[in-house]
Write a structure and sequence with these properties.
With about 130 residues, the protein is mostly helical. Strands 1-2 form a two-stranded antiparallel sheet. A hairpin with a 2-residue loop joins strand 1 and strand 2.
Length: about 130
């Protein structure tokens, strides 16, 4: 059965666009995760420093600024929280984008892809139940 070439072209363009969205979201998650790891390393270095009341050199873009370590630590922790939140939001959006891509390709929805991890409180309750 011959298909209309315009229909096939539109279909392929739609699938390609959805696939590019998925790849872009994954790359953005990777980039943010690298930044989060660098922040974590900086926080750890500040924590291990024997002189906590000194100042630290902080790089903003292409400029270094000397700031109190307490302020630097506070800024890095706030940035960590924002990065965690943004990465989690991107992961949730990625699930939706992958499902749209699979739907456009005519594939069944991924099973187990929409699972969420249990919180620490939920794990404590489960452990209490299992221990009896």
């Amino acid at each position: 059965m011959a298909r209309d070439p315009a229909f096939v072209l539109r279909y392929l363009a739609e699938v390609e666009e959805l696939a590019e969205d998925v790849l872009a979201a994954r790359q953005q998650i990777v980039d943010l995760d690298v930044k989060r790891n660098r922040n974590r390393e900086a926080l750890r270095a500040l924590h291990k420093d024997p002189e906590p009341d000194d100042k630290a050199m902080v790089c903003f873009g292409n400029m270094f600024i000397e700031l109190p370590k307490a302020k630097t630590r506070e800024m890095l922790q706030q940035d960590q929280e924002e990065l965690d939140e943004e990465i989690n939001n991107l992961r949730k959006e990625l699930r939706v984008k992958v499902n749209r891509l699979y739907e456009a390709q005519g594939k069944p929805e991924l099973k187990g892809f929409n699972l969420n991890p249990m919180s620490a409180e939920e794990m404590k309750l489960i452990n209490r139940i299992l221990e009896g």
